[in-house]
Amino acid sequence: MFKPRRTKMLALFAGLMLAFSMVSVDHAEARRGGSFGSRGVRTHQSVPATRTAPNQAAPVERSMTPNTAPNAARQPSSAQQRPGFMNGLGGSLMRGLLIGGLIGLLFGQGLGGLAGLFGLLLQGLLIAGAIMLALRFFRGQNARQPAMAAAGNAPGANRYGRDAYSDVGKPTALAVPTFGARPASAHEAAATQELKPDQGDLDRFEALLGEVQDAFTREDHAGLRLLVTPEMVSYLSEELARNAHNGVRNEVNDVRLLQADIAESWSEGARDYATAAMRYEARDFMRDRSTGKIVEGDADAASETTELWTFMRENGQDWKLSAIQQPA
Hints:
Helix content: 25-40%
Structural class: alpha+beta
Protein name: Lipid-binding transport protein (Tim44 family)
Order of helices and strands: HEHHHEHHHEEEEE
Keywords: Membrane, Signal, Transmembrane, Transmembrane helix
InterPro entries: NTF2-like_dom_sf, Tim44-like_dom
Transmembrane segments: 85-107, 114-138
Domain Tim44-like: 185-326
Shape: globular
CATH topology of the largest domain: Nuclear Transport Factor 2, Chain: A
């Protein structure tokens, strides 16, 4: 049998490990992925669903565009609407109760204090659950938005990707998308007008998918400045700097578009925007800079990814990537 002192130390050690793991959740950040960039006046609005991305995408999470919509105060971002339990109120309560219980354990309350701690944790969970349910109910009443706006289009509509194949394995002709799937809000209508990209625009979007990935793989900052907006340059350069600091290189090779369609497109004065849902395959992996070994991913097998890319052009110039979002 364990001696009481040893049992007490083991319980304290386990509690400290749990506490530190909870704190680390708050500061965890994904190495890749996420939603960042700008989409003009629609930056802080959800993207309509499409055949390629059948779930409505949440608004951009990181952007230099301020949220100036009249109802911005009542429409928080998706991260605020659906926080992880350990990142929101529940996490704060649990960390406070756990740390309080550990302090009591340190000051001589022993395992009895630890038992009281778990009782407090249970109470905290019940209280946090009730509060979260109430908050979700009121937010649901005030922040409902139309979903699946474009999912009901006829087969072939809003499609320009190379996902439809004939019996002999050859891709069919690319189709120009239709629009009008999502009604514009009063704020949008006052600042934007509908835009219909032509086939040349669609071909350029497909080309940019590969060109941006290639410049990123080569860590070509000058090349990226020609293909993406200055804001996107800052985000991508930040990721490249983080990879360099960690001693790795992110390589994305053999990019091939499988399916794509236009979620929405519009003009704001001299600027045109188009958001495309794109499903593509590529060999995406991390390579150690010093040894050349693959430390994450598979260099020999392609994986599929679906993202929403927003392209922007100003005064009729070339299209540039202005935002990347992850579908819900």
